Amino acid sequence: MTQSMLDVRGSIANLKWNTEHHYLHIKNQHDFVRIWAIQFELGYSDFRTVQMALQLTGRSEMLKDFTKAYDAVYRYEYAFVQGGLEGFNQQFGTEIDAYDKAHQSFLAVLDELSKTQPAPDGDENLV
Questions:
Q1: pTM for this one?
Q2: What is the CATH architecture assignment of 9-114?
């Protein structure tokens, strides 16, 4: 029997926001800004938090899906953090459709994870 999952609504919300906004930032060819790197680093902490919650509940298939989907987006975001727009374009400039697919897949996994979380109760912004 699978136990209840820790409340990680805040981490899921942060990952959704980062994933969507970072994709749009790169797609629209905006230059690198420092806050982007901070969001990227904080997003990794959210990723690890969700991984830990999934491990504690024994949801190994969801953990695998979540990690695989995150890793697919991470490679694009890391290229941008590492080399800015120019570095991203050198490495992935012709792969924006693949990046879009990866980001959409990750958002879908996050939506599935959201279904395991408590219903909105007014306190979801506190976690």
A1: 0.90
A2: Up-down Bundle (1.20)
